[in-house]
Design brief:
By secondary structure, the protein is α+β, with helices and mostly antiparallel strands. Helix content is 40%, strand content 13%. It has a domain of 54 residues. The radius of gyration is 26 Å and the shape is flat. The mean pLDDT is 87.
Length: 93
């Protein structure tokens, strides 16, 4: 196989993920849409720790997080215009 190291890592990670047991978490989005989120073992473990610490179910945690607005990216810095090149004054005027 002729893959770059990055491509090989990506392909191996896909195979590894496909062998893991998927956990489904049902929850209701802020617009009332019923959702089913698929999580791998590491993700569901972290979600369980968070929801346990907060004393809510996994679905309730996802519902509450859906109401938190995403941070807006910082506005791009304006690039100052290039200074006009020095032009010799017109001899006629």
């Amino acid at each position: 196989m002729n893959l770059s190291p990055e491509e090989m890592t990506f392909a191996r990670d896909l195979v590894k993920a496909s062998r893991q047991r998927i956990h489904h978490v049902a929850w209701v989005d802020r617009d009332g849409t019923h959702r089913m989120t698929a999580l791998n073992a590491a993700e569901v473990g972290q979600l369980n720790r968070l929801s346990g610490r907060l004393g809510v179910s996994n679905g309730e945690l996802l519902r509450q997080v859906a109401y938190i607005p995403n941070p807006k990216p910082a506005p791009a810095q304006a690039v100052p215009p290039h200074p006009a090149p020095d032009v010799a004054p017109d001899a006629a005027g």
